[in-house]
Design brief:
The complex is a heterodimer of chains A (114) and B (116). Chain A contains no helices and eleven strands. In chain A, the strands form two sheets. In chain A, strands 2, 4, 5, 6, 9, 10 and 11 form a seven-stranded mixed β-sheet that branches. Chain A has a four-stranded antiparallel β-sheet with strand order 1-3-8-7, with no helix packed on it. Chain A starts with a strand and ends with a strand. In chain B, strand 7 and strand 8 form a beta hairpin. The model of chain B has no long low-confidence stretch (mean pLDDT 93). Chains A and B meet through strand 4, strand 5 and strand 9 of A and strand 5, strand 6 and strand 10 of B.
Chain lengths: 114, 116
């Protein structure tokens, strides 16, 4: 069965800390995504990766960076966490060969920055 | 730029009844894909149904069906015989079929409550 695993369901961090959110998929998907989910705003794309070491900015990349050293793993990094980054973070993956391929999501990480 | 609008933040339906969630989108493209995703309280988002814009026939998956009106840019989800397990956030999403594009554009979601 398809699986996207996010390393933490809940995280509490302090302002200014460097935060790593990890995501692993076992489906050999080329595309991986990081979304932020906020009430009333839906899902907003932070970063996208279509191959190892390749990345593109999404709609809200400010304050975030990403790393994709292996095909199955896509990390989201908050260089210096701020309270306005308190949110739900969703990782997703999909095949690149078919544009009708759906996204497969992880369970999400609820991050609180205090 | 494409946009997706879900105008109903919250809906309620009685168990065993039928409910329709609305979604409209704006695009200048003719070829694209539309999706409905469900996010239950457990939080994992799962695909409910998918529609290809070049197909006139409305997609159906068991109790879930869509009413795809391409000219009106409307893509509503109908849930028949609603069950308690259908309670969730539902998101409508759009993806262009153009090469070189990768973005899935999501609406703001509709929270569906199912009343016993």
């Amino acid at each position: 069965d398809v699986k996207v695993t996010q390393s933490s369901r809940y995280l509490v961090k302090r302002t200014g800390e460097k935060v790593f959110l990890e995501c692993v998929q076992d489906m050999d998907h080329e595309n991986m995504f990081w979304y932020r989910q906020d009430p009333g705003l839906g899902l907003r794309l932070i970063y996208f990766s279509y191959d190892v070491k390749m990345k593109e900015k999404g709609d809200i990349p400010e304050g975030y960076s990403v790393s994709r050293e292996k095909k199955e793993r896509f990390s989201l990094i908050l260089e210096s966490a701020s309270t306005n980054q308190t949110s739900m973070y969703l990782c997703a993956s999909s095949f690149a060969t078919s544009r009708k391929a759906p996204l497969h999501f992880g369970n999400g990480t609820r991050l609180t920055v205090t | 730029a494409q946009t997706v609008t879900q105008s109903q933040p919250e809906m309620s339906v009685q168990e065993a009844e039928t409910v329709t969630l609305s979604c409209t989108y704006d695009t200048s493209e003719s070829d694209y894909y539309l999706f409905w995703y469900k996010q239950p309280p457990s939080r994992q988002m799962i695909l409910v149904i998918r529609q290809e814009a070049y197909k006139q026939q409305n997609a159906t998956e068991n109790r879930f069906s869509v009413n795809f009106q391409k000219a009106a840019k409307s893509f509503s989800l109908k849930i028949s015989d609603s069950q308690l397990g259908d309670a969730a956030m539902y998101f409508c999403a759009y993806r262009s079929a153009s090469s070189g594009t990768y973005k899935y554009i999501f609406g703001t979601g509709t929270r569906l409550k199912v009343l016993a």
